[in-house]
Amino acid sequence: MPKKRPTSINDANLVFEDFDTATDQAGEQPVSQKQQKEDQFLPDIDNDELVKRILTKGVDLRLYARDIESELHALEDEQLANYEDNESALLELDSEIRGCDEVLENMERLLVNFKSSLGNINDEIQTLQSDSMSMSIRLKNRIVAEKQLGKIIQGVILSPEAVETICNGEVNEKYLECLIEVNKKIAYLRVHGKQHRRLKAFQEMQPELERLCLKASSKVRDFLLAKINDLRALSTNAHILQSSVFLKYRFFNHFLIERHPEAAVEVRDTYIHIMRQYYLDHFETYQRGLMKLERPVADKTDVIGMEESNKLSLFGSAKPTARDKANVFNLGARASVLDADDPRAIVLSIASDSNERHPFEALFRSYNLALSDNAAAEYEFIMQFFVSPKARQKITGSDMARMVFGHIFEPSIRVGEQFLKGYLEGAYDALGMLLCVRLVSQMASELQRRRVPVLEAYVNSVNMQLWPRFQAILDGHIESIKRQSSYRPKSKIDTQPPATVRRYVELAASLLRLNQGYNTHVVALSLARLRAEVQAYIAHTAGGSSDKHASLVFLVNSYDLILTVLYENGFTEREEEVSSWKQELSATVLEYAEVELEKHFGYLKQFVVDAEQQSDIGQISSEDLNRVVGVFNAEWRSKIAAINSSIIQSFSNFRTGTEILHAVLGQLIIYYTRFHSLYDKRFARRSGNGGGGGGGNTVSQPVGVQNVMVEIKKYRNNF
Fold first, then answer.
1. CA 335, CA 39: separation in Å to the nearest integer?
2. H, E, C per residue of 301-331
3. Which tens digits make up the pLDDT trace of 568-627?
4. How far, in Å, CA of 328 to CA of 588, rounded?
């Protein structure tokens, strides 16, 4: 509260009652004890600047103090007068201040009350906060409990509509949806049964779901068995029924496998029994139809070394030889059966109506194509329908699929093996055998690409039948060539290649084509054996003739035919077959060149050989030199023309004839150049010695080498 102000003059006088207004009359009255005490509290005058300044001026301090005191009294009087003049204003101010004090007191009371109210509100807020936290914890606990209980409730509760559908509904897509829901409930009970076995809901729902499971298993079993029995009819397309019905409702079978294994085994066994007979009937029918379309290609007489003349049968009719049959040794268009881009198999109805006939490899391809396609489709179906990813089985899904597939396709595979075995008993077509081997290899690659590992045993079994028969057929060809080599050759030889050589090279080229990309050792070894026997046969035939020239022409024509066919089939000297025959041809051409040169220029050749053996060039007779020069100068043009004519008549192949002509004339140039060298040396030495060593003074001048070469160039383009 503010200090109260004086309200009257008397009050104001009281304020100044302690002032001492008396002055010292003598001016030298000693300082009172009170003044001394006050001086103790005065600041140190030595350090006061004002005091120092007064003392410096020499002013009397007492007088100065009195002046100051009189000034203070004057100011006091002035203030008192001012106060008296403003007394009313001051009183009014005091009154207002008192009013303000009352207002402030009221406000203080209000604030104290407000503070008390705020304290109460704070307590209430704390209480509400505590309640809120408690409620939040309870809410979280309830949410967690509701979530856990919701899962449990959703896991065991089944709608009445689903129960009604399972018990009394028709097996269809709606039934499938309800069964999936029931299966989820059963699975949930099995997974969480031990954890929540004390829950009453679990205890009540478990027997009910088990009864529903039995009811559903019974209805699903009847449904699947009825659909499987529809496959008994031959007119039924099993693959369409599998994709449209069985795969659509494959969960039914998975449900049986997981919940009722006995019923699943019954369904599986019924399916195996029906489909086993289904495929067997279809493949037997297809196999019998294919056999009616076979076009025989070769028999046991169709070997490389067969006799050229037609053989008479028992009733005197002529039996056609290999010359009258197409594609026995030549692959030709038969290789098109290996075209992997053509997925079509032979359709029996179309082939029968058009009266088509096919070699066995085409029939074999069609059967295997049908077998592999059906096997792949069936294996994929089995993997989807009879293998449940959630089933608890002792064997893996792939092993289960293999087992089911094996039971179904075992008879059909056996039909294919018997189909091949029946053909192989009378098969003599080596190309057909190798084509079948390549077809089996293609089928194995395709099955591997499609990840269908169920026909390995069939592929191995077929290969085990084909390769030995292929070897046996080639052995027959080799033996036939050996038999021909054992016959006594004709004394008069035909210079044209025999049919045996043509059959051999066609077969060899065909086998090489079929071995490209495979490089099978068995084929390469068989070709090497066959080549060795043919070489022996050609040499044996040529060796029986007394005419060396005709024998060489026969050899050249035979080797040339072999190489021509090999080149036409796209083979180069990198192939062992080509390089081997090329060496034989080159050696024979050189030998022929020597023989042909001996026939027309034998005197020149013999003279050069004998003269070069002389240790002294001077021992060569001038008469012999003149005789050779005279004969050569007289007939060299006609002899070259005779050589050209002989080669044209003996060899019809332009390339080979040109090479042989060049070889013969090249040898002629070599020998004649050597003769010229001997001639020049001999007569150069004679002129140096001044005489001859053999009598006779006349020396004939030989034709120049350049003249002979110019003449030879005229025959370069005769072929």
1. 145
2. CCCCCCCCCCEECCCCCEECCHHHCCCCCCC
3. 999 988 889 999 999 999 999 999 988 888 888 888 888 888 888 887 777 788 888 888
4. 30
